[in-house]
Amino acid sequence: MKRDKILTDLKLYLQQDPVERKMVADMIAFVEQNPDCFDRSNTAGHLTGSAWIMSKDLTKTLLIHHVKLNKWLQPGGHCDGNPDCMAVALNEALEETGLAVTPLFPEIFDVDIHLIPAKGDVAAHLHYDVRYAVYAEDDGNEIGPNTEINEAQWVPLDVVHEYNDEQSIMRMVLKAKAFR
């Protein structure tokens, strides 16, 4: 079954980070109950993959200003049928920033379930976001806007809150600071 790997990874993550127990349990239940969990055709929600991109020295993260959501976030996007959430995260990082990135470790770094507001003919729905910590070999280049992002900036971990102080972002900052 194409959901086996993500279910195994989520269960392993739950053992490593019990703080997020409820969210991980909800995500596991969603995946188990929805064979189409990787597809946007599931209008209640679907899995997404995100990359928390770190500088080589692990002191900064790359945030993008998302066009549709009008906020600073980590790069990420829809699985669109791909059951490999890490591959989705790596691909989205490349598409949105132009940077090839390397995983810091193969396990899940963070999970988050968040509401995406209705827009046009797309109803409000949930994103079950699976996040991976990665680093960029080349963290000195400027990253230009594209159709999905307005801007991208390398942000020192200590000032990420000035860009986005949402709980899920600040949770990743705390985890990233533990790498140093």
Structural class: alpha+beta
- Kindly, what is the distance between the CA atoms of the first and last residues, rounded to a whole number of angstroms? 38 Å
Q: What is the class in the CATH system?
A: Alpha Beta
Based on the coordinates given, report the CATH architecture. Alpha-Beta Complex
- CATH third-level topology: Nucleoside Triphosphate Pyrophosphohydrolase
Coarse shape: globular
Main sheet characteristics:
5 strands, mixed
> Helix share of residues?
25-40%
Q: Which consecutive residue ranges, at least 5 long each, have pLDDT under 50?
A: none
Full CATH superfamily name: Nucleoside Triphosphate Pyrophosphohydrolase
Short structural description:
This protein is an alpha+beta fold.
Question: Can you offer a commentary on this structure?
Answer:
The chain has 180 residues and is of the alpha+beta class. The protein has a single domain (4-177), classed as Alpha-Beta Complex (Nucleoside Triphosphate Pyrophosphohydrolase). It is 28% helix and 29% strand. It has four helices and eight strands. The protein has helices at 4-16, 21-33, 85-97, 167-177, and strands at 45-54, 60-66, 71-73, 76-78, 101-103, 110-116, 125-136, 149-156. The strands form two sheets. Strands 1, 4, 5, 6 and 7 form a five-stranded mixed β-sheet that branches. Helix 1 packs antiparallel against helix 2. The N and C termini lie far apart (38 Å).
